[in-house]
Design a protein that fits this description.
heterotrimer; A mainly beta (141); B alpha/beta (476); C alpha/beta (244); A: 141 residues; mainly beta; 2 domains; 4-stranded parallel β-sheet; 2 helices; 8 strands; 15% helix; 52% strand; B: 476 residues; alpha/beta; 8-stranded parallel β-sheet
């Protein structure tokens, strides 16, 4: 099991968990002074037979008034026996904060693949295009 | 030894005569004297079984459960349970000499709350634990007639064990075995009271079944055990608990609820819990839903010192659907550790968890949830929304969700937000002439509206008022 | 309503530098000026928004000094603010909220909720506000225009003595603007309500005739006049060019 862990309030991590790989990615964001802001975005693609353990915690301590904290975990299950666990956690000890997290795990829709294949791409090429777009999504925002 | 003379339940008074005084969920035969005893051991468990005149099977089940209870460790996660002293608890008969409760013993805050909520005298005494039974015999009698005609079975768990032994044995302890967790093991050893409901194929029970319809039942027992079986295409809505605070001397409440929803059936189980602030409320609830069935847990946690409760739905058949709508309000000295679990075992299953929690005056509210989409559960979808409101600097909110997906042909979404009451929103309402307290209460009620509107009318009205009172600080 | 030498700070920044203004019952006073001139700040200061700190000067309503009063106390004195950016309160049913508001403002009136709802439906219709919106949460997912109409509907339930319209015209189409302006004009005339209309443009004043016009620039009043002043400002513009 490959273990990755990051500490920080703001970061963007994209990750491909290749065939048969087992990866755990943990992020920890601590807010301990007033007016801190942060956003953590994790995007991962999980291939055949691979497993991703994604945990992310946002800890907002008593002193961290007016914190604004966000965590987004997006996982795309591509492979047949792909598995993922997403555990976004929040621990908030004061009231003047804005904190939110979102986790979504989904799949590539057949319609999207069909659409691209209809433009002349092979199935593998189509899937690769969709994966690239998913991982590179932040550019659109 | 008292025996059930009548198998028919339409004559409520007849049954009452036979049972004698029905205290604490089971009969007290007149010609025997039982000494109150603290603590838990095999003798106590055997005594409970003996008093109830149970079959060999149940007695053995209790004893085995006790062994499991001793072996199991306390959970290493969740709220702080270190102060529970199992030896200081009465597991069946309580001492009554000179310790009869009087209205004077009921804490002042609770009495005041009853006044503010406009609760009628008779009900006040019942809620305060003074009277063990709410006089609903007349209602009860005619209802039971109607149900009997439809083949609906609704009775206390103790009775059901005697009246429907085969059906009970087939389901009891199968969904939540004693080995499930330490408190399920405890309940399995010392359980008493609770409801048994069976709804036949295609029958839709047209009014919500309330726990207090059962004759001779206290508002909520210490170790209740409930079993509900909804047959194919049937429907039932069961309601337990109440919004007004219930004063309980018992400090440990550990209930178990098992529900089976067969193909195309639907069950809604609504609980509003508002135990006094000395209570540890540790509950295990699980439903198993077959093809195209629906299970809805509506869970309101207002009281108790510590609550740990995660209603679960096992979606075992294609297109089964499960929902957990949970409200938790944690005030001073309280920790509500609640949430829900949905396990997708079949294709095209769907689940939804909505959790709304409020922490105020140093209270702590935690959401703990699990969504598990197993391989094979193709085209399943799950959505979890947890919103938390923290009202002041002393309070705390946590979210601990676990989302497991093992099936790529499925979708899971989880969102959580934590916020306080917005200054702009407060100003807006105050500028319309509402005081700061009124404005806060309106915003908080709006926050919970999505779930509160699913509650039976009387509950939702009381709930809104109760929360407004808690925010004022007049309720402990 | 009288404002004398009002000096206000927000986030330690001086935003109003000594404003003098008065509105009589039944009088319509238009306040115009570029963005950042302090118009909305004055509206919020009058209503007692916590972010606005009054450092000097006085605000009076019917002789009562507002300075130390909380927003709800000012509302109870009869002041109503139609917000530029009305808040949405999730889960607080609009219809239910309006009924609560009605009961609070008119404790002596004996209408039943059914009568109230009928009356409400008529008012909503006259404003062009769709009936379905009344069953939604207050301003929840309302468009900008719908929110403005809801502010006016609330005003009608509230029955104020003095109304501040904070840029009610922004984001409204011509029809809606006409309906709202005419409604306010009628209320002002019939119920002798003093109206403070804060606006960038002349449009609304076509239907809501101003008795006085006042121009704000950089936190003070720079020009005073009658309705003709509004036209002048419209034609000549303000000194600064602003983006909407």
């Amino acid at each position: 099991m490959k273990k990755l862990s990051y500490k920080g309030r703001s970061m963007v991590k994209t990750l491909r968990v290749g065939s048969g790989e087992q990866v755990s990615l943990a992020t920890m964001s601590v807010y301990d002074k007033p007016r801190q802001r942060g956003e953590v975005v994790i995007k991962a693609v999980v291939m055949d037979g691979a497993f991703l353990d994604l945990s992310g915690i946002i800890k907002i301590k008593k002193e961290a008034h007016l914190a604004e904290a966000f965590l987004r975990q997006k996982v795309l299950l591509v492979g047949d026996k792909a598995r993922a666990e997403a555990k976004p956690e929040l621990e908030i000890e004061t009231d003047e904060v804005k904190a939110s997290h979102a986790a979504s795990v989904g799949r590539i829709s057949e319609e999207e693949i069909f659409y691209l294949m209809g433009r002349g791409f092979s199935r593998e090429e189509a899937i690769e295009l969709i994966i690239k777009a998913f991982l590179g999504e932040e550019d659109e925002n | 030894m008292s025996k059930f003379v009548s198998k028919k339940v339409e004559e409520a008074s007849e049954v009452k005569k036979t049972l004698g005084e029905y205290k604490y969920g089971f009969a007290m035969p007149e010609n025997n004297v039982y000494k109150a005893e603290k603590g838990l051991n095999e003798k106590v468990v055997e005594k409970i079984s003996e008093i109830k005149d149970e079959s060999e099977w149940m007695r053995e089940f209790r004893k085995k459960s006790l062994e499991i209870f001793y072996k199991k460790e306390m959970p290493k996660w969740g709220a702080d349970l270190s102060e529970i002293n199992f030896d200081e608890i009465y597991y069946y008969v309580k001492p009554s000499n000179g310790q009869e409760k009087s209205w004077d013993d009921v804490p002042k805050e609770i009495k005041e709350t009853y006044d503010r909520l406009g609760i009628p005298e008779a009900e006040k005494e019942h809620l305060g634990g003074i009277k063990a039974q709410y006089e609903s015999e007349v209602v009860y009698g005619s209802l039971m007639e109607r149900f009997k005609k439809q083949g609906i079975v609704f009775m206390g768990m103790d009775e059901a064990l005697k009246e429907y032994p085969e059906m009970v044995k087939e389901h009891f302890g199968k969904l939540i075995p004693p080995s499930d967790n330490k408190f399920a093991a405890l309940n399995s050893a010392v359980w008493s009271g609770g409801s048994f409901i069976y709804v036949p194929k295609g029958v839709k029970v047209d009014l919500p079944l309330q726990a207090y319809f059962r004759i001779n039942s206290p508002k909520m027992g210490q170790f209740e055990r409930t079993l509900i079986i909804v047959d194919e295409g049937a429907y039932v809505h069961y309601v337990e608990g109440c919004t007004a605070p219930i004063y309980s001397v018992d400090s440990l409440h550990s209930a178990v609820v098992e529900i089976y929803v067969k193909k195309g059936g639907r069950c809604r189980y609504t609980t509003i819990q508002n135990w006094s602030n000395n209570v540890y409320n540790l509950v295990t609830k699980r439903a198993r839903v077959e093809e195209e069935g629906i299970m809805e847990w509506i869970d309101g946690n207002l009281g108790s010192k510590i609550t740990m409760k995660y209603p679960a739905v096992v979606l075992a058949g294609r297109k089964a659907h499960g929902e957990v709508l949970s409200i938790a309000v944690a005030g001073k000295g309280q920790h509500q550790d609640a949430g829900g679990k949905c396990i997708h075992m079949a294709p095209e299953t769907t689940s939804r968890i909505i959790s709304k929690s409020i922490s105020m005056r140093g209270g702590r509210s935690s959401y703990r949830g699990l969504i598990n989409i197993l391989p094979g559960a193709k085209n399943s979808r799950s959505k979890v929304v947890c919103d938390a409101l923290i009202l002041d600097k002393e309070s705390r909110s946590d979210t601990y969700p676990v989302n497991k997906i093992g099936e790529k042909e499925s979708i899971l979404e989880h969102e959580a937000t934590v916020s306080k009451i917005g200054e702009e929103q407060l100003f807006y309402l105050m500028s319309r002439g509402f005081s700061e307290e009124e404005a806060e209460a309106m915003i908080v009620n709006g926050f919970m509206e999505e779930i509160v509107k699913e509650l039976p009318m009387e509950y939702s009205v009381e709930l809104n008022r109760l929360i407004a009172l808690q925010m004022e600080g007049s309720v402990g | 309503m009288e404002i004398s030498n009002l000096k206000v700070k927000i986030d330690k920044k001086k935003i109003l530098l000594g404003v003098d203004l008065s509105i009589a019952s039944g009088e319509v006073v238009a306040v115009m000026g570029p963005n950042g001139s302090g118009k909305s700040s004055m509206a919020y200061s009058l209503m007692g928004h916590p972010k606005y700190e009054v450092v000097e000067g006085e605000m009076k309503l019917d002789g009562k000094v507002l300075n130390e009063m909380s927003p709800d106390e000012r509302a109870n004195a009869g002041l109503y603010l139609a917000n530029q950016y009305p808040m949405a309160i999730e889960g607080l049913g609009s219809s239910r909220f309006l009924w609560q508001l009605y009961k609070k403002r008119h404790p002596d009136k004996r209408s039943s909720i059914i009568e109230f709802k009928k009356w409400l439906a008529l008012q909503a219709e006259s404003l062009g506000l769709k009936k379905e919106l009344l069953s939604r949460g207050l301003n929840q997912d309302f468009s900008g225009g719908e929110k403005k109409k809801m502010e006016i509907l609330q005003m009608m339930v509230f029955s104020p003595k003095y109304v501040i319209l904070d840029e009610i015209d922004s984001g409204l189409d011509v029809d809606a603007l006409e309906k709202i302006a005419k409604t306010v004009a009628k209320v002002a005339k019939e119920m002798k309500v003093g109206v403070l209309v804060i606006t960038h443009y002349n449009r609304i004043l076509k239907y809501l005739k101003a008795d006085k016009v006042v121009v704000f620039e950089n936190g003070v009043v720079t020009k005073r006049g009658d309705a003709k002043l509004a036209e002048e400002v419209e034609n000549k513009g303000y000194s600064k060019k602003e983006d909407e």
